[in-house]
Amino acid sequence: MSAIVEIQNLKREFTVGNQKVKALDNVSFTINSGEFITIMGASGSGKTTLLNILGCLEKPTMGTYLLDGVNVSGLSKNELAGLRNSKLGFVFQSYNLLARTSAIENVELPLLYNNKYTASQRKEKYLKALEAVKLSDRAYHLPGQLSGGQQQRVAIARALVNDPVMILADEATGNLDSRTSYEIMMLIQDLNDLGKTIVFVTHEPDIATFSKRTITLRDGRILKDVTNPNVVRAKEVLAKLPAVNVIVDP
User: Fold this and answer.
1) What are the structural domains of the chain?
2) Which of 11, 19, 98, 100 shows the shortest CA–CA distance to 60?
3) CA 155, 159, 162, 165: dihedral to nearest 10 degrees?
C-alpha cells in the first residue's frame, strides 16, 4: 500500500506578542492510500493547523511533508496552488458554494483551473461527480434551493471532480442534523470503499466511529493514533432511525 502522506517531525510555531506558540510540536505520521482517518482534538489542540498544512494552505515551521511523493516545503505559492487543485479535494463545514451559481457550475469550478481537460471532458467529469453523490436531478438548482445535506453533497462532488489523491473534510457534518450527518457519513464511507483516501477533522466522537483510524491531538502533539477495530456503518445507523413523517399540504 502506497503512502499518500508522509509527515516527519512537523512543527508549526506562531509569534503572539512576545510569546512563541507551538501549534504543532514534533508531529510524525503516515497516511496510506485508501485509508479513512479522523483527526480529533479540543479547540487549540492543533487540528485546524494540521489540516491547513495537509491542504497546502500553510507551510510548517520545521519538518517534512510529502504529499503523494512531492516534498511540499520547497514549493512556491503557485506550485502549492497547482498541487492543491490536482491532488486534493476540500469539504468544509459551511459548504463554501457560490450562491448565485448552480450545483453543476459549483462542481465544475475546480476543472476551470485545470487546462488539461476539454469542455466535453469537463462535462463528463462533473456529471459523473454529481451522479456519485446522487444529485443528478438537482444539477441546475442554486444552493438556496437545496437543503443543507444537498449542499454538502454538492461540495463533496466538487471535491471529487478532479480525481484527487486525498479528500480533506473540515467538520463537514457540523452544520447538519443527526440524520443528515449520517447520510453524509454513509456517502463518505461509500467513497472510501471505492478507494478514496479520506481525512476527516471532527470534534464529535460518534463521527470518528465511522472511520478506520483516529489521530487525537492535544497541545500540538499526537496523544493517540489508533486503528478502529469495530468500524460503525452509517447505513446501518440510518436504518435504525425512526421513519420521517412527511407532511404534504392539501
Assistant:
1) 3-227 (3.40.50.300)
2) 11
3) -170
What's the rounded Cα separation, in Å, for the pair 246 and 250? 12
Q: Is 90 exposed, middle or buried (0-12, 13-18, 19+ CB in 10 A)?
A: buried
Cα separation, 186 vs 163, whole angstroms: 19
Report yes or no: 178 and 238 within 8 Å, Cβ to Cβ.
no
The pairing of strands 3-16 and 19-32 is: antiparallel
Longest dimension (CA), the chain: 67
Q: How far is it, in rounded angstroms, from Cα 85 to Cα 72? A: 14
- Predicted pLDDT at 17: 85
User: What's this model's pTM, rounded to 2 decimal places?
Assistant: 0.90
Residue 248 has pLDDT above 60, yes or no: no
